[in-house]
Amino acid sequence: MMNERNEFPNPEEPFMSTMKKRRGTKKVDVEGMQTCIWPIAGAMIAHGATTCDPTTRSLRPLRRHIRVPGHEIPQRLSNTLEQYKMDHRSDYEIFKEHRRLRARAKPGYISQKTSADSKKIWNNWSQEEKDEAVQRLRDADRAGIELKDVPTDAEGDDEIDDDEESDDAGAADLGDLPDAADEEADDDYEGSAEDGDTAMGGPRKDMFRAYDDSEGKMRGERQVARKRYGKGKASDLDDVDWVYQKHLGSGGNGSAHLWVHVDGKGVIQDRIAVKDCWTDGPFHWGSIKFWDGDPRDMAPEDRLPVEVEAMQACQEKPGSHRIAGIRDHSVDFNRMAYRIIMPFYARGDFITIIDKADDDYHVPEPFIWCAFEALADACLVMERASIREADKAPDGWKEIVHRDIKPDNVFLAARNPKSFPSYPQPVLADFGGCIMTSKDDILNPTAYADSTGTAGYFAPEQHAYEDKTTYEAVFIARQQSWTNIYQIGRVIMSLMNAPAPETLSEDEIKKGAVQEYLSTDPLYDDPEGWKDHEWFKPETEEKYSKELQNSAKSCVKYKPDERITAVKLKGKILRRSGGVRNGKGKDFAKGLRSKKVAKGGEGDLRGWRRKDKYAVGLVRPEK
């Protein structure tokens, strides 16, 4: 989609026409901006905002590049921004910053080593340990105690278990929800409001007003209350008694908990992950995008949130094992909330796999082919309700566009003895941001180009842009199966480019060194330049076959109609991983599609083997 000057829209400048590029530095004509946006913008930029609001999305590229000579942030706003940052940081960011401040005061401080140690400690903690540690830091902050003055937890804070296959390895046992939209930051990016380049000013100092951070505090309190609700609200699934076991994780609008059913001897008979989902209020609850169908034309008992409808639609279809299951659901119209009951996936997610990569170990190529095939199957199910090439989509089928495919949302299920028996099977989960669309959907693309998803994994068509001449909205294309294809390509690149560096330079970001932690998509500056873009680190190109690299790159074309289709992608994967019966193609999976690899042998995957303490047949452990 080109504008009147036959140029592709530039997503780096979607809503700020006064922004000018000068040798890679963004400068802003502050006289042309409304006064009221400065306090909020200042807070968001200092925090490194990753919000999906289209009007603020344009602020992301300003993060380290705003220079307004002669204007400094007033002290009262500066103090408010510090509080804003604390209230809106993710748990891991607060934990990491605390350790950095404590370590900086000690002799021999090395930033990269401290950051790496913090990450290892965090990944080896249980969710309860994380919650307790971060709550202690938040309480201290509210009491006026600076983070640098809060001592580290003496119990295990500095003890790291180097056993990579530890029974207690990893973060949550999966079922974890993604961080809230305003908490999704590049965890390993060292830049912050303390950077000298992040000076924020306005037309006149007396126009500033203090940013009211009460909403941020209320958001945190609301999340705690919702977690408490999920813990106390038992499920009535199958009319059996369910016993609360543990908190799995929380996101911006949801909280997940593990519940088990035990017999009289305390032996686990069944287990479920219960996800409680809240909306952002009447505006969200009443949106036509939230429901499957127009809620005004449906009786309350017939309405289903799109997330629930999409998950149910994928069940019992050829290839449905590639989609997270749903066992039951309920909708509470009075509370504007709903509940999803799912299987419990105890082996982690793709982040579990990525975190195990280091300079001496990379994710094995056979597993990446296994993951590629699983995600391609998921795309086929969402597109046409079947992974079989001969099948056509059923009459009335609505294509499902996930919109938030990322490593966090790909869970690890049990191994399949008939397909890559050495590896856990990837399962696509968390359909909270999905849409269900068809060729005659009048909302596509205009209503769906709302930047729902995660920075670094957005397909270009997920954003609305502004024509530089007419100032009218510009939409690249509809969101449909090709949007899913783009995102699975980025996920595969994340596996290939692991490990992520502890710090990211602008150079590394622009060269695509890390897909997982990108806060913006710098390639949008020059869509035509994507053909020559360096998607992989040099060492990545040496580790993996050209066939795997090219297959991933075929998914991430700027123009959606140039991307490979799900059907062709599945065929290409089969021909390159030993999946064709007549022996055509070359097997870059090294025969592991049909045989097992010994633990520690070539092709062995680290990070997913862990003792399942909540497996059916075991005695229920203490909480």
UniProtKB/TrEMBL annotation:
Chain intervals with Acidic residues compositional bias: 152-170, 179-197
InterPro entries with a match to the protein in the record: Kinase-like_dom_sf, Prot_kinase_dom, Ser/Thr_kinase_AS, TF_kinase-domain_protein
Biased composition (Basic and acidic residues): 142-151
Domain (Protein kinase) ranges: 242-574
Any GO MF annotation of the entry: protein kinase activity
Annotated stretches, region: Disordered: 1-27, 142-210, 577-605
Record protein name field: Protein kinase domain-containing protein
